User: Which sequence fits this backbone?
């Protein structure tokens, strides 16, 4: 059973353009990881200040390897400074596939 | 660009077994909808009381058709009574695929 992650962000409006550029780079690198199944950046349809990275990983080890990767540790601290509040991170394990 | 839904639930512990049976039936029917890409029930890895249906739909029309379907309107009211608090529904549009 795979793992799914919902990382919900509130981007500072003045940082939106630069953040989306960095996020596109992070996505390209993350999709090269062998344990990544899906990694998509989304916009909340009801609240325009909120975004979310919705992720799927082969297993817990794949998710842990991602969080230790060079690109994660390069981009996430930069992106954190562009958020209006701390990200909300939820990690789920598939129960009924 | 597809739509993703995160519907987070807190199941009443005494209803867990029955709810999971109904959810498995709802999943089987939902996956037959032509606009459904993915519909997976998950368990929060940090908080054992919480679950989430994590969904992907071809477009907004597909999601609207789902919410008007016979199975949605049969199962969701039944399941709502098995929740310890109202579900938290977030709808996202893919921004960077």
Assistant:
């Amino acid at each position: 059973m795979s793992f799914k992650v919902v990382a919900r962000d509130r981007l500072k409006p003045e940082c939106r353009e630069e953040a989306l550029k960095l996020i596109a780079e992070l996505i390209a690198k993350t999709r090269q990881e062998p344990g990544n199944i899906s990694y998509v950046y989304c916009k909340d349809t009801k609240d325009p200040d909120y975004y979310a990275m919705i992720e799927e990983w082969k297993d817990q080890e794949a998710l842990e390897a991602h969080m230790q990767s060079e690109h994660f540790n390069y981009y996430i601290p930069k992106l954190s400074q562009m958020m209006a509040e701390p990200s909300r991170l939820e990690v789920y394990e598939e129960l009924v596939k």
User: Anything to note?
Assistant: The mean pLDDT of chain B is 95. The longest helix of chain B spans residues 16-30.
